[in-house]
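At this stage, I needed to go through a protein sequence along with its fold in token form, as given directly below:
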Amino acid sequence: MIKRILLIDDEKDFCFFTKSNLEATGNFTVTICFDSSEAVDLAKKLKPDLILLDVLMPGISGPDIAASLKDDPDTKNTPVVFLTAIITDKETKGGNVISGWPFVAKPVKINELIEVIKKYTK
């Protein structure tokens, strides 16, 4: 079954690279959202299997978007995985969690990202 991913990140090159690589596997369809103010409404509309969310977004921050998603009945059960360049895997001692949310450090390794997506979309 093909998993629907919503990628929320303001870095356009990163988004196009990630979308292309994930979709090339044949296991994912990826919708990109560059605008943090549209993220929650788009998530409600698309009902993705998982949301990849940049921590540092202009306007509304990633953690604030995640909190809004968690508070909304339509999206509260949608898994969210943070993407971040501000903390590394080593800084979390391999726990890969920020304030209870899983994350993948940038630069993202596609194989690692695929494993994380599979883990949270069973």
Observations:
- The chain has a mean pLDDT of 89.
